[in-house]
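ARCHIVE CARD
CATEGORY: sequence design from structure
SOURCE FIELD: tokenized fold
FIELD CONTENT:
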């Protein structure tokens, strides 16, 4: 039996966002469990939900890093994988393997200070049976971030921040490089956590201030749009960046987070802007519960996450963890539990919405 603590939605914070208190009238969240992670690092990155095995994957830490496997049924820590997983970002999976991106910095000490001499990216292949590493390979480009698997096409796609393209590999114990897919723009801050819609053979990709829709079979960009008309560059913050996102098949919409305390709703067919809504801070990862029609936006500086109603396209709630680096999370759509990585707490907080 899970220990249940009730955490009521912070309705007062909605007023600060210009959102009616009534939006939160029937919605609050229960804190079911806190899963402490074996790290002292206050960072961390992406969280993913594997529907096939009902596992939650967490990219833990930067300096004290590793890949974490959590059982979604009982919210227990199953395995910590440290062998070769350094500064992990995204992860992808198929029936037999999990593929974890890893960012390595080779340093040398010069005049008493460590200096990065070389930076390169790897993908660590972990067998689900026994949770052991079966292969590690260096990507063609550098700065591995988002990663997606398409078992139907035997393809693994790796987005590379520094190189500003996507590496394409085969799946399996020893992936083989196939080709590169160019992104737009060719320079800038690079791609982030996009979303692969396998049923439509589409990959939606955030890149710098742009959102693009591409066909991974051909590498052709079918549509693209910039958020600069809505969020202007500033001397303090520079250009606005698109970030994590989700695809809503019911409305054919794409919800795209940004680093400027806004989330955009685009028509997934042509990337025309439908709406943009306020958030408490810049967004990193976005998750979606299609049955409850709830969109979750995780925000490091806000110490919590915003909740949106996908049906009404309105802000619904804000939940505070009380800890910084609460910038990633994932949803288990079976029981609607939300796994939130609170980096500064070195823990995953498990919430459940009560409607």
């Amino acid at each position: 039996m899970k220990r249940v603590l009730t955490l009521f939605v912070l309705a007062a914070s909605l007023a600060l966002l210009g959102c009616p208190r009534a939006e939160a009238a029937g919605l609050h969240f229960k804190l079911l469990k806190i899963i402490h992670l074996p790290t002292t690092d206050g960072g961390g990155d992406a969280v993913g939900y594997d529907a096939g095995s009902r596992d939650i994957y967490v990219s833990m830490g930067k300096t004290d890093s590793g890949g974490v496997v959590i059982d979604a049924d009982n919210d227990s820590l199953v395995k910590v994988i440290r062998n070769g997983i350094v500064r992990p970002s995204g992860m992808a999976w198929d029936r037999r393997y999990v593929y974890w991106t890893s960012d390595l910095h080779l340093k040398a000490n010069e005049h008493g200070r460590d200096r990065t001499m070389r930076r390169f990216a790897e993908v660590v292949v972990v067998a689900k049976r026994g949770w052991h590493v079966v292969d590690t390979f260096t990507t063609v480009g550098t700065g591995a971030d988002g990663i997606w698997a398409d078992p139907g096409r035997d393809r693994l796609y790796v987005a590379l921040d520094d190189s500003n393209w996507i590496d394409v590999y085969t799946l399996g114990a020893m992936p083989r490089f196939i080709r590169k897919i160019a992104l737009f723009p060719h320079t800038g801050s690079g791609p982030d956590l996009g979303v692969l819609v396998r049923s439509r053979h589409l990959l939606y990709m955030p890149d710098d201030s742009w959102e693009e829709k591409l066909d991974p079979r051909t590498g052709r960009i079918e549509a693209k749009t910039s958020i600069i008309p809505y969020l202007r560059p500033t001397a303090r913050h520079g250009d606005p960046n698109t970030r994590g996102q989700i695809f809503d098949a019911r409305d054919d919409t794409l919800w795209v987070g940004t680093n400027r305390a806004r989330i955009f709703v685009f028509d997934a067919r042509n990337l025309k802007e439908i709406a943009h809504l306020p958030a408490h801070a810049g967004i990193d990862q976005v998750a979606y519960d299609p049955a409850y029609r709830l969109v979750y936006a995780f925000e490091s500086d806000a110490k919590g996450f915003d909740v949106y109603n996908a049906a009404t396209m309105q802000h619904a709630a804000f939940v505070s963890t009380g800890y910084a680096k609460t910038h990633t999370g994932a949803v288990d759509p079976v029981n609607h539990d939300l796994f939130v990585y609170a980096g500064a707490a070195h823990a995953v907080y498990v919430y459940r919405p009560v409607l």
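CARD ANNOTATION: Residues 1-24 have pLDDT under 50 and may be disordered. The chain has one helix and 29 strands.
SHELF: design records, drawer C
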